[in-house]
Design goal:
- The chain is α/β, with parallel strands linked by helices and 324 residues long.
- It contains ten helices and twelve strands.
- The chain has a seven-stranded mixed sheet with strand order 5-4-3-6-9-11-12, sandwiched between helices. A three-stranded antiparallel sheet has the order 7-8-10, with no helix packed on it. Strands 1-2 form a two-stranded antiparallel sheet.
- Helix 3 packs antiparallel against helix 4.
């Protein structure tokens, strides 16, 4: 598994500065704003960051902001920095392919091309979310207990819709340290009236009983493994030991073809989330993600319904020159 190392010692990590990503009109251009924020974001999930990148693509067509040359450099930084979050990588790669295709042409056409791609991605993601939600709700029929870990917008929306439709079930979720995204998901579900029980992460391991489903999302679907928050694998193993189905819900925007899956993925986040200003002899590490073999799950549900991992391929995905 490609995993970056956490850094400790010397105090909390400083917030990333704006990148110097290129030169324009004979002077160095500083890329601040949306693309730099996206590249540095270690707090939000894949869907949220992808939406922010799509919003940049929508707005860039209006002129201003980065030149195409600077945008290419900044988008490559986004793709490499967020390679663990498949939708972000896929969108950044597609924007790069479009800009490389239009190198040497009218800048207005390049900006419009990116905006068209952003709208196309947005329509695709909306349709996939709707279809996936329907398939997931069918899979949840008759399930009285749902165990989940960390937070997935796909899972949350499906559970909310399932409960609103009149199905009764309870949700057991852990807080998701150190980011606390599981606690936020629990609060969001409870606000909709869903019965939720929230505990610390270790508690969830022992709370899985002989009924229900262990349901999680995925940050990426690789050729032989899927990526989710560290700690998912032992929970999935516990669920299977107890006869509880392991269900992963993710649309095919999470699929990374081999060429993109080969990019190094940094799975660690800021050690300051764990300890602030540690002494020099203390090395703090904060790994967030892990890769889990598909053999550890019982059902993978995409917008196509129950999907075999070997059938995830969605056709040829061109890879930008900047990422090869």
């Amino acid at each position: 598994m490609n995993r970056g190392r956490g850094r400790g010692g010397g105090g909390a990590a400083r917030p990333p500065r704006a990148r110097r990503a290129g030169r324009s009109a004979g002077k160095e251009t500083v890329v601040s704003g949306i693309l730099a924020e996206i590249a540095a974001d270690r707090r939000r999930g894949a869907a949220e960051i992808a939406e922010k990148l799509l919003a940049w693509g929508d707005g860039w067509v209006g002129g201003g902001g980065e030149t195409p040359d600077v945008a290419r450099t900044a988008l490559a930084a986004v793709a490499r920095s967020q390679a663990a979050l498949a939708p972000v990588l896929r969108v950044a790669n597609d924007f790069l392919v479009e800009l490389e295709r239009r190198e040497g042409t009218d800048e207005v056409a390049a900006r419009r091309g990116v905006a068209v791609l952003a709208e196309r991605w947005r329509r695709r993601l909306a349709a996939a979310a709707e279809a996936l939600g329907l398939h997931l709700r069918r899979a949840l029929e008759g399930v009285s207990t749902v165990y989940t870990y960390s937070a997935s917008s796909t899972v949350r929306r499906a559970l909310e819709a399932h409960y609103t439709a009149g199905h009764w079930f309870r949700v057991l979720v852990s807080e998701g340290r150190p980011g606390g995204e599981g606690a936020r998901m629990a609060a969001a579900l409870a606000e909709k009236g869903v019965p939720v029980r929230l505990g610390v992460d270790v508690w969830l391991l022992g709370a899985i009983e002989d009924e229900g489903a262990f349901l999680v999302g995925a940050d990426a679907l690789l050729p032989t493994r899927w990526v989710n928050k560290l700690g998912t694998a032992p929970l999935a193993a516990r669920a299977r030991d107890r006869g509880v189905a392991v269900v992963v819900a993710a649309d095919t925007s999470k699929w990374l073809p081999p060429a993109l899956a080969a990019l190094p993925r940094v799975y660690d986040r800021d050690p300051a989330e764990i300890v602030y200003r540690p002494p020099p002899s203390l090395e703090a590490v904060n790994p967030y993600f892990e890769e889990i073999p598909y053999a550890a799950l019982d059902r993978l549900i995409t917008e196509r319904g129950i999907t075999r991992p070997q059938d995830l391929r969605v056709g040829d995905v061109p890879v930008a020159r900047a990422l090869r």
